[in-house]
Design brief:
Length: 393
């Protein structure tokens, strides 16, 4: 016998990965140039040169035993200090190395934080559209994921629904801005209103309600927009950051949790997160990657290619008649399915080798997601297919 929940998680494939793998098989049959794969969020720009150079230089010039050895569980002091200094300088909130816990990316960071905050059947609130993995992260740990319906079509926050979903069991609201899948950035005004609501509710309930800020897309912002650093607006914020998208290193598994001093009882929260990580098998984040971050904490990606793809796709698809909020962050677009059934629309698109992700798992079944981290050539080849699909709908 095996655990039935784990069996379900291991066998019910994510629809994104199914589509991605279908695309690979289909490319072998009809030719790569005839498959338009918008399914998976794998960065399409290379890591900044200084990042790759740091990998090589560290391997060449650092003692091999040191490079590959275990580091302390929260990370190497030099790497923690470099991240803290960069955050402090950038956002004006004092962050110390001791506030930083390195993880293997944002996914294990979220799990460690949810473990640390789960008092047994605690509730974590996700605001649709949301990253589908939040559900197994919460539920595998005995907590509950409560979904607040989307604020369509702007994808900010449905305030009535959010307030109604908060109760004595609520431990945190997960905020993912810039957002996967909508590409929307929560405005400062939205975040201030959220902060006021959570403060009031926390006082009424007699315990703090945390924000878990899930921030893999922090650096991917366009049009001079601002993605506010949430701890400066709401002190009880725990940040889960990842270099997967910001430095195009998704396979290298590196990110961190930041528990600023302004979090209530921050040392206890930090220690519980260390426990949550330990209980998930965390030993330390990859040592080589920590060393690279220590050198490149201030490196930024050149996001021009994403920006250009975003402009071309938004312009073309809206001119055909598709309905979509203009994304100002991340590398996704969330588009209303003609007819309102994104599952059916995605099936039709698949027949034409156009791979788009229906929004059901993101909590918005009338919308579909496309990734804009793709090649400009593929975009050009795919536009007539988008147009034809709309005409046939
Ligand atoms: N959170 C969101 C919103 C994501 O889109 C992703 C990855 O796509 C993750 C978390 C997990 O990122 P990581 O690769 O750092 O584990």
């Amino acid at each position: 016998m095996v655990n039935q929940n784990m069996l379900k998680l291991g066998t019910n494939r994510s629809c994104i990965r199914e589509l991605f793998e279908y695309g690979l098989r289909q490319a072998a049959i009809v030719g790569k140039e005839n498959v338009f794969d918008y399914s998976i969020g794998n960065p399409s720009i290379p890591a900044p040169p200084e990042v790759n150079e740091s990998f090589v230089d560290i391997i060449r010039n650092t003692d091999s035993l040191a490079v590959h050895g275990y580091t302390p569980a929260p990370g190497m002091p030099a790497a923690r200090d470099a991240v803290a200094a960069e955050l402090t300088e950038r956002f004006g909130l004092p962050i110390r190395g001791a506030n930083i816990f390195f993880t293997c990316g944002a996914a294990p960071a979220l799990i460690a934080v949810m473990r640390a905050l789960n008092l047994g059947e605690s509730e974590f609130i996700a605001i649709a559209p949301f990253f589908p993995e939040y559900r197994p992260f919460a539920e595998s740990n005995g907590a509950k994921l409560v979904v607040v319906p989307a604020d369509v079509p702007n994808f900010q926050i449905n305030w009535t629904a959010l307030e109604a979903s908060i109760n004595a069991r609520t431990q945190a609201v997960i905020v993912n801005s810039p957002n996967n899948p909508s590409g929307v950035i929560y405005t400062r005004e939205t975040l201030e209103r959220l902060a006021a609501l959570l403060k009031r509710k926390g006082e009424e309930l007699g315990h703090p309600i945390f924000i878990i800020a899930d921030e893999p897309y922090r650096e991917l912002v366009y049009d001079g927009e601002e993605a506010p650093f949430i701890p400066t607006i709401y002190p009880n914020t725990i940040v889960c950051y990842s270099y997967s998208k910001s430095l195009s290193l998704p396979g290298e598994r590196i990110g961190y949790i930041c528990v600023p001093d302004c979090v209530d009882d921050s040392a206890t929260v930090f220690a519980a997160i260390a426990g949550g990580a330990r209980a998930s098998g965390h030993v330390c984040a990859p040592a080589l990657q920590q060393r690279v971050v220590a050198r490149c904490a201030a490196s930024r990606p050149n996001i021009r290619a994403y920006d250009e793809n975003r402009a071309v796709l938004y312009e073309a698809l809206t001119s055909y008649g598709y309905d979509c909020v203009k994304p100002n962050g991340a590398f996704y677009m969330f588009i209303k399915a003609p007819g309102g059934d994104a599952q059916a629309f995605s099936e039709k698109a698949k027949e034409k080798n156009l791979l788009i992700v229906p929004g059901g798992d993101f909590g918005v079944p009338e919308y579909f997601r496309i990734c804009t981290c793709v090649s400009p050539e593929m975009i050009q080849r795919s536009l007539p297919v988008f147009k034809a699909l709309l005409e046939e709908a």
